[in-house]
Amino acid sequence: MNLDTLFISLWKEYIKLTPQAKTIHELFQEQENHIITNDHIAFRTLSLKECNIDVLSKVFLDLNYERKEHYTFKEKKLSAYYFMHKNPTYPKIFISELQLLSFDKRIQNIFNEIIKNIPLNILKSSELIYSGKHWDISYKTYEDIYKISEYAAWFYVYGFCANHFTVYINDLKNFTNIKDVNTFIKKSGFKLNTSGGEIKGSAKELLEQSSTLAQVIPIKFKEGIYNIPSCYYEFAKRYKNKNNHLFQGFVIQSADKIFESTNQH
Ligand code: NI
To answer: How far, in Å, CA of 77 to CA of 91, rounded?
Structure first.
């Protein structure tokens, strides 16, 4: 697998869960008439040895990505790294993992059990990252988990897939600022995540981000069909620091609020 085919597979699975991203992508393409580039693609996983950040990032490290900065999100009990390719036109990869050992035994057991259902050949393959979930789900369990961690509940329902792609605003020609991007998205009929304000971060922090509210889609549970927020589309604009270097990292406060794009709404 090369990077281009990997990104195509990730996008295909992502837009199955998030048709709004395909629509928004097409709207940008109509406006821009060139390829819309991604700032980063983000993934969610668990701190278990079978599927932690080290396991999920292997496919990228094998394709010349390098591990960069580490972040922790104390309240949400998450840990994350971002990864960057030597060729900066490739999107950064942001992988977070739920610190399962910080949760009570009941929650740990739920995840220890579902992970056992992943076939060994998938666990060992580069396809794991877009293989979805490999277990049956119960709405009652989902609700129980949601009360404790929205992130954990989301993973329980969706498993392995891109949680979001991110339009890189710097490469757009007809939009110079994130405010205009947000106006365009809202005018097109999509709702933005307003947790922490529509725009997270600032030029001073060298990164501005916004995102749609995750698309709500019907999901089959043991008890029947329920509507659950899936994935969302993000928009990011980066700025240069005093030394004229474009900031490539992430801002913890902003990322913390972006995570909430998958909250129930
Ligand atoms: Ni993001």
So the answer is: 26
**Of 236, 227, 228, whose CA–CA distance to 258 is shortest?**
236
Q: How far away, in angstroms, is 105 Cα from ligand 1 center? A: 30
CB environment 113-131: b (16+ within 10 A), e (fewer): ebbeebeeeeeeeeebbbb
Ligand 1 center to 232 CA (angstroms): 9
**Residue 211 vs residues 111, 157, 258, 262: alpha-carbon distances, Å:** 28, 21, 7, 10
Pairing of strands 65-73, 78-85: antiparallel
CA of 84 to the centre of ligand 1 (A): 14
Ligand 1 midpoint to CA 93 (Å): 9
Q: How far is the CA of 221 from the centre of ligand 1 (A)?
A: 28
Measured in Å, residue 169 CA sits from the centre of ligand 1 at 13
Question: From ligand 1's centre to the CA of 251, what distance in Å?
Answer: 10
The span from the CA of 246 to the CA of 50, in Å, is 35
Q: Residue 224 Cα, ligand 1 centroid: separation in angstroms?
A: 31
Q: What angle do CA 10, 15, 20 make, to 5 degrees?
A: 145
Q: Which pLDDT tens digit goes with each residue over 62-104?
A: 999 999 999 999 999 999 999 999 998 999 999 999 999 999 9
The tens digit of pLDDT for each residue in 37-72 reads 999 999 999 999 999 999 999 999 999 999 999 999
CB 152 within 8 A of CB 107: yes
Average pLDDT value for residue range 162-187: 97
Centroid of ligand 1 to alpha carbon of 40 (angstroms): 6
Question: What is the pLDDT, as a whole number, of residue 88?
Answer: 87
Comparing CA positions, the residue from 187, 164, 149, 173 lying closest to residue 235 is 164
